[in-house]
Amino acid sequence: MFDFRRAALALALGLCAAAPAAAQPHNVIIFVADGLRSKIVTPETAPALAAVRSEGVDFKNSHSLFPTVTTPNASAIATGHRLGDTGDFGNTIYVGKPFPPPFVSPLAGLEDDDVLGLMNARFGGNYLNETSLLQAADAAGYSTAVVGKLGPAAVQAVTAREGKGTIVIDDSTGWSKDFGALPLDPEVAAAIKAAGLAKTTPDRGLNTWGGAYNMPGVQIANVDQQAWFTAVATKVLLPRFKAAGKPFVLVVWSRDPDGTQHNTGDSLNALTPGINGPTSLAAIRNASDNLGAIRAALKELGLEGDTNVIVTADHGFSTMSREAPTSASSKFRYPDVVPGFIPPGFLAIDMAQALGLPLNDGAGLPVDPKQGFYPKRGALLGKDAKAPEVVIAPNGGASLVYLPGADPAAMARRVVGFLTAQDYVGAIFVRDALGPIPGALPTSAVGLAGSAVTPAPDIVVSFKSFDTGCGDPELCGVEIADTEQQHGQGIHGSFGRQDTHNFMAAVGPDFKAGFVDPSPVSNADWNPTLSHLLGLTIAPKGKEVGRVMGEALVADGAPRPVEARSIRSEPAANGFFTQLDSQHVGATPYFDAAGMPGRTLGLKVEP
Question: Could you tell me which of 220, 360, 361, 510 has the fewest CB atoms within 10 Å of its CB?
Fold first, then answer.
């Protein structure tokens, strides 16, 4: 029977399948190892991950997008667009009017299926405003599915919310709609049961739902939950796709090593070993073993020769520091914060004091640090929490600052003046229409301005990063961060190279074998490259797009000329400036690091 739904969608999106006479495209599996640093992968630490890199293409000059957190990079992997187009500026963003109860804040946490549905409803039916690879492949008749981490998994197919088309399986699968579960095709649910698997993911009680960050610390990897996801992929989805007899696209989003690194208990209140302890290494091995099981299943099913296996990480990782003694917030005492350490919400506490504005938490409740309280889930600054002058959305090693008041340009100058005086600030970016402001670069310089339909941040801050002296700054990177993690646990989000240098590799019939790619690449390049291989044409709305990584393909292979650039803002009165180091392949930029020299890992320092 002719599928009118897919045909209509294909016409609306400007999609087309490969010409009938062309050879059938190869299958694609995208394995996202959340929070995997490029240099931590060796045959000893992660044999299956290292095997993909050595057998296929090693994208050694790889890049995460800034802010280096999960859902922004999920949006780039999904659509091939930088954040100025997708509007997914952080795991937590400002959306204006609060969503209906139980959501009571104008700040939305995007690692939640219910919130993603509300985002679509408010912002034109697809808050990303661009077509994802899975959406395009589904419309063209391919078998499509995504399995894994709550939030970024659904971002890959953000419009697939009715249990039809692309199969979406995440932490909420098997639970009731009251718990935010997306519908699952009854045939798939029955296949999960027939495979002898539980209908829901095992909950190890450790950050399964994205919380519990302030827990004492863990010393086990996320083995059980990821074993379930891997079993669903290998015992249910891959056999189903083989039986369908048509090309497929499968995304597997691994929680490890990210979740375990965030919660590691190996180094509480100490910066070493930090995220290099045995628990984090076990998480890296766990993700590697999951990938190995998927590749073994491909071989057993006779699909190995027809499948491209893509491995990427949304971002790198750092050890968290709460030492910023010049912060005003560190002078107060909190019942759950080590004396002298900065609390969660330190940026809001300091900024409210400097600007002389009342401080409220993300729900609009007044906060008094003198009484031992700090703002949670963001902050709203101003006399009226329902009409704040400043909104702060914390995203680990970066914070998004929105200025919804009457005179955002004047407030921007005040806020930047405050930020340039803080020794924990690494880099500052200001929305182009509000600048130029000494000390800051424009947001357009780092791909944060474009065709997005969500509110764009007025100011983006990256916090200071440094290293512990282990010999490789990327492996022993530390950063100040606004989060609930403890000193010594893991975090990310900054513009240091330890966070922007993610792991990227690919192996399969369309990729070169044993090739080390020297050209810069990023998470925004996966969609253009894979769409090219799958014979899909996606009509973009925005211009902040990645490129086809042709130098890594068997059918192309031509080297791409690369140009390195470095720009600096005008200095602030105290000498603070923001420097941006980047590489360019034609018109496509890749951002290595940005910040004040001496406060940002990986930044080039001129003699």
Answer: 220
pLDDT single digits (tens) 91-149: 999 999 999 999 999 999 999 999 999 999 999 999 999 999 999 999 999 999 999 99
321 torsion bin: left (phi>0), alpha (psi -120 to 50), beta (else): beta
Question: By the 8 A CB rule, do 494 and 398 touch?
Answer: yes
Q: What's the pLDDT score for residue 17? A: 41
Q: Is 402 helix (H, G, I), strand (E, B) or coil?
A: strand
Rounded mean pLDDT of 431-456?
A: 98
Give the span between the Cα atoms of 156 and 71, in whole angstroms.
10
- 266-279: burial string, b at 16+ Cβ within 10 Å, e else: bbeeebebbbbbeb
φ, ψ at 368 (rounded to 5°):
-120, 105
pLDDT at 208 > cutoff 60:
no
- Regarding whether 478 and 432 lie in a shared domain, the answer is yes
CA angle 398, 404, 406 (to 5 degrees): 140
Block residue for tokens 């395009």: 136
Distance CA 375, CA 482 (A): 11
Number of domains in the chain: 2
Residue 45 structural domain: 4-81+130-318+497-552
- In a shared domain, residues 276 and 357: no
Q: Furthest-apart CA pair in the chain: how many Å?
A: 72
- Mean pLDDT across the chain, nearest whole number? 93
